[in-house]
Amino acid sequence: MEESQVRLFQIQAEICKSLADPKRLMLIHELRQAELSVTELAHSLGLSHANVSQHLAVLRKRGIVSAHRQGTTVYYSLTSPKIGEACDLVREVLADQLHQNQELAGFLGLS
Hints:
- By secondary structure, this protein is α+β, with helices and mostly antiparallel strands.
- It is built from five helices and three strands, in the order H-H-E-H-H-E-E-H.
- The protein has helices at residues 3-19, 22-33, 38-45, 49-61, 81-107; strands spanning 36-37, 65-70, 73-78.
- The protein has a three-stranded antiparallel sheet.
- Strand 2 (65-70) and strand 3 form a beta hairpin.
- It is flat, with a radius of gyration of 18 Å.
- The N and C termini lie far apart (46 Å).
């Protein structure tokens, strides 16, 4: 495998690591709807301001969210709608797996 391809997989893994946290996924879900401030996100999700800021810093470092200042407030948004679409795809796979497990449980008389 070419070195450039290996590097691309390494970067992809880093992005996946940054998505491997439920709170970050919740932030992404909220940011799909609108551009929001840390305060708005913290209030909406019931998280502390500091915790939201820490998670946003990880997402920003990986290029998943971007920020811009408006007066004294910093607003965050997704860098691409494809991020939300990727999360949707993973949720669809999860839903398929749950459905298959329910069918299997029913077949085995476990449900």
